């Protein structure tokens, strides 16, 4: 899983100075490979992927290796209000709870990555984010810390190859479905 940033860079042909504009529309992408398996398993995988109907339908995916934060935040945390473009959020959680750099959480239909280690005090947990908010948070929204998912669209056109007794693996690419 990787975060694709949407930005534009401009360089002056005269002095060499540069300007970069962040368009604040980052999106997650996932590349994965289904392993070689039986024809029965491959047929089920093929049916599932074909049911996505190209990019028409979506599937909820999460980071399959990092299913929960490395930090200690658990329970039922809630997010405070935040505006579009914010690069940090306040989470209501018990004092001493932590999130570590690289932890993934879900809030307001977005998958967010923690930029730096942070520890909750008596007020809450101020979480600096790698990706900025695409939508405003109204406050009181649940923070999903275990297997936070967002919808993804299939962008690859996989081809399943069947042989006697088995089927080859297939590579898949997905991009986060926004809005």
H-E order: EEEEHEEEEEEEEEEEEE
Distance between the termini: 20 Å
Number of strands: 17
Question: If strands are numbered along the chain, what order do they take across the biggest sheet?
Answer: 1-4-17-14-5
Summarize the biggest pleated sheet. Answer: 5 strands, antiparallel
Radius of gyration: 20 Å
Task: Name the overall outline.
Answer: globular
Oligomer: single chain
Helix fraction, binned, reads: under 10%
**Percent of residues in β-strands:** 35-45%
Structural class: mainly beta
- Low-pLDDT runs: none
Count of DSSP H/I helices: 1
Average pLDDT confidence is 93
Highlighted features:
mainly beta; 5-stranded antiparallel β-sheet; 36% strand
Question: In words, what does this structure look like?
Answer:
This protein is mostly beta strands and 179 residues long. Helices cover 7% and strands 36% of the residues. The chain has one helix and 17 strands. It has one helix at residues 39-51, and strands spanning 2-4, 7-11, 18-22, 27-34, 59-61, 78-79, 88-92, 98-99, 104-107, 110-113, 118-119, 125-128, 141-142, 150-154, 162-163, 166-167, 170-176. The protein has a five-stranded antiparallel β-sheet, with no helix packed on it. Strands 12-7-6-13 form a four-stranded antiparallel β-sheet, with no helix packed on it. A hairpin with a 2-residue loop joins strand 15 and strand 16 (166-167). The longest helix is centred in the first third of the chain and has 13 residues, at 39-51. The radius of gyration is 20 Å and the shape is globular. The protein starts with a strand and ends with a strand. The mean pLDDT is 93.
């Amino acid at each position: 899983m990787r975060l694709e940033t949407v930005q534009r860079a401009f360089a002056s042909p005269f002095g060499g100075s540069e300007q970069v504009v962040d368009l604040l529309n980052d999106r997650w992408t996932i590349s994965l490979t289904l392993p070689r398996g039986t024809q029965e398993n491959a047929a089920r995988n093929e049916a599932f992927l074909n049911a996505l109907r190209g990019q028409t339908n979506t599937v909820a995916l999460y980071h399959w290796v990092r299913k929960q934060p490395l930090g200690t935040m658990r329970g039922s945390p809630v997010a405070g209000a935040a505006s579009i473009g914010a690069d940090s959020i306040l989470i209501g959680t018990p004092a001493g709870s932590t999130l570590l750099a690289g932890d993934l959480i879900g809030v307001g239909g977005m998958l967010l990555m923690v930029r730096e280690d942070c520890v909750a005090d008596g007020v809450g947990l101020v979480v600096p984010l790698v990706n900025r908010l695409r939508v405003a948070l109204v406050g009181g929204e649940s923070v999903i810390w275990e297997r936070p998912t967002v919808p993804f669209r299939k962008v690859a056109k996989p081809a399943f190859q069947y042989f006697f007794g088995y089927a080859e693996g297939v590579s898949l690419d997905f991009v986060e479905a926004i809005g």
